[in-house]
């Protein structure tokens, strides 16, 4: 396996990157507040039209160069570094809860709170959100273990609905490897009751071979 894990930003550009990341984080925070307000509001149609006009005006201010589809943002490190626009962990993403991840002796733990924008059944999280959270935690656990891979199989078991607006605890860990295959497991509980599994998952990840890695991620710099 030959996928170079991300290095920290070079010292010369560190201050610039920190400023960019801080600005991206701030905009992400405001966008999430807008999403939350949007999905909760009972405002009149007139107000909604006026807000839509305002949002369109604001969107028009994000001009200049746009990154290409396969380009890795300069503020990111891939794999194994920050992903500012990830829909799971990205501080700059209006879609992300975002999950904050910390390492443990046995894998990774993520913390987040889902909002009404992530609703499936009324008052509870969408099952696809649970799959996304667990896929990410298990995928990042593979990377943290030194064996990054792509998900080829994800088996979900939904034991109880996930409450919205409730701090959650997501665990991902590697359970075994077999050549390029990495096996992982994960759970979602509330932070208040970490011994009651709400959702559990098993997954298989595969580390692509070097040719496939280059083809899939042309923006990934080759290891010197
Ligand atoms: C690289 C780091 C990236 C980290 C980013 C974080 C990711 C977060 C999680 C995601 O969102 S991943 C996105 C969703 N997943 C994908 O889009 C993956 C799509 N699949 C692929 O692109 C290819 O399947 C892949 C490049 C991963 C593997 O293709 P290969 O051609 O290298 O695999 P190959 O067919 O040679 O199979 C390798 C081994 O895996 C086995 N295998 C393949 N599919 C399997 C499967 N579904 N279940 C179990 N085993 C499987 C296969 O039998 C074989 O076993 P053996 O070595 O024992 O013969």
TrEMBL record:
Keywords from the named record: Apoptosis, Cell membrane, Cell projection, Cytoplasm, Fatty acid metabolism, Hydrolase, Lipid metabolism, Membrane, Transit peptide
Enzyme Commission number(s) of this protein: 3.1.2.2
InterPro entries associated with the record: HotDog_dom_sf, THEM4/THEM5_acyl-CoA_thioest, Thioestr_dom
GO BP terms in the entry: fatty acid metabolic process
Transmembrane feature ranges: none
Catalytic activity: (5Z,8Z,11Z,14Z)-eicosatetraenoyl-CoA + H2O = (5Z,8Z,11Z,14Z)-eicosatetraenoate + CoA + H(+); dodecanoyl-CoA + H2O = dodecanoate + CoA + H(+); octanoyl-CoA + H2O = octanoate + CoA + H(+); (9Z)-octadecenoyl-CoA + H2O = (9Z)-octadecenoate + CoA + H(+)
GO CC entries: cytoplasm; membrane
Thioesterase domain mapped to chain residues: 123-191
Topology in the lipid bilayer: Peripheral membrane protein
Pfam families registered for this protein in UniProt: 4HBT
Cell membrane as UniProt keyword: yes
Localization (cell): Cell projection, Ruffle membrane; Cytoplasm; Membrane
UniProt GO molecular function: hydrolase activity
Assigned protein family: Belongs to the THEM4/THEM5 thioesterase family.
Name of the protein described by the UniProt record: Acyl-coenzyme A thioesterase THEM4
Lineage: Bacteria, Bacillati, Actinomycetota, Actinomycetes, Kitasatosporales
């Amino acid at each position: 396996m030959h996928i170079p894990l991300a290095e920290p930003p070079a010292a010369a550009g560190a201050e610039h990157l920190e400023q960019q990341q801080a600005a991206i984080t701030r905009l992400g925070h405001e966008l999430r507040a807008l999403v939350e307000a949007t999905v909760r509001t009972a405002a009149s149609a007139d107000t909604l039209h006026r807000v839509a006009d305002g949002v369109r005006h604001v969107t028009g201010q994000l001009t200049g160069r746009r990154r290409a589809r396969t380009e890795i943002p300069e503020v990111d490190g891939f794999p194994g570094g920050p992903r500012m626009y990830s829909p799971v962990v990205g501080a700059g993403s209006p879609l992300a809860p975002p999950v904050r991840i910390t390492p443990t002796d046995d894998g990774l733990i993520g913390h987040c709170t889902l909002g009404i924008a992530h609703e499936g059944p009324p008052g509870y999280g969408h099952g696809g959100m649970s799959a996304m959270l667990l896929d990410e935690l298990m995928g990042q656990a593979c990377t943290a273990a030194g064996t990054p891979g792509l998900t080829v199989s994800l088996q979900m078991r939904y034991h109880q609905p996930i409450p919205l607006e409730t701090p959650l605890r997501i665990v991902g860990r590697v359970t075994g490897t077999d050549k390029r295959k990495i096996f992982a497991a994960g759970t979602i509980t509330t932070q208040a009751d970490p011994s009651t599994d709400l959702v559990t998952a098993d997954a298989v990840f595969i580390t692509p071979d070097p040719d496939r890695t280059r083809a899939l991620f042309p923006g990934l710099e080759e290891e010197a």
